[in-house]
């Protein structure tokens, strides 16, 4: 009888532990890969777009990115520590901004037919980071550059996936650089062996970023 009671109590405790563990999940995050501005309330995440494709109207491109970035997904995390704003007046390419305007631009999107010179292949979009800043024992970055293939710039998944990299999220999936199982994440894509390309960052993704930017 005592053994049976002990078994039941043990199973109940295990169930509670498993339930609590699943209630607070997060996607793998690398604090060394995000832009520094996400830690500060006083610094907005200005973005600009550079289109190198004559078939794309720059005003339409800005409308598309604002549709994805403004007032949803990552925008507003950490009590507005992440706050996206279009840089400059009017709809300008990054190259048309003044040097003082460009200095404040933390995310720069480049739309190109061929991304091979930046990504090593024209088969995908990618990111690069610049201006390393040493803070709290590791490096952050001043700004990030997202190189989007022309065919990808209308994709919610690709815009959110690559922006997720600038904010510190890392790729996941069986074929990712650091292989993992396919969980619910904007970073787990078909390109890395998963079955779904999520259109928007999931609760796990947002929790990972929130924990980092408010943990200082």
Automatic annotation (TrEMBL):
Which UniProt keyword terms apply here?
Signal
Q: Keyword Signal, does the record have it?
A: yes
Signal peptide boundaries: 1-25
| One MF annotation (Gene Ontology) recorded for this entry | metallopeptidase activity
- Tagged with keyword Metal-binding: no
Protein name per the record? Snapalysin
Species assigned in the record: Brevibacillus aydinogluensis
């Amino acid at each position: 009888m005592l053994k049976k009671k002990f078994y039941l109590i043990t199973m109940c405790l295990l169930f509670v532990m498993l339930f609590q563990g699943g209630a607070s999940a997060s996607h793998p995050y690398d604090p060394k890969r995000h832009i520094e501005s996400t830690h500060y309330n006083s610094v907005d995440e200005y973005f600009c777009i550079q289109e190198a494709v004559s078939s794309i109207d720059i005003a339409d491109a800005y409308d598309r990115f604002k549709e994805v970035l403004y007032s949803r997904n990552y925008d507003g995390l950490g009590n507005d520590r992440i706050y996206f704003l279009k840089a400059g007046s009017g709809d300008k390419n990054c190259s048309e901004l003044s040097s003082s305007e460009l200095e404040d631009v933390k995310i720069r999107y480049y739309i190109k037919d061929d991304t091979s010179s930046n990504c090593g292949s024209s088969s995908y979009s990618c990111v690069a980071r610049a201006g390393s800043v040493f803070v709290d024992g590791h490096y952050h970055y001043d700004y990030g550059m997202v190189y989007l293939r022309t065919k990808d710039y209308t994709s919610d998944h690709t815009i959110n996936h690559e922006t997720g990299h600038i904010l510190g999220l890392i790729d996941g999936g069986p074929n990712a650089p650091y292989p993992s199982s396919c969980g619910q994440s904007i970073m787990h894509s078909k390109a890395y062996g998963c079955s779904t390309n999520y259109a928007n960052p999931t609760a796990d993704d947002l929790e990972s970023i929130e924990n980092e930017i408010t943990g200082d």
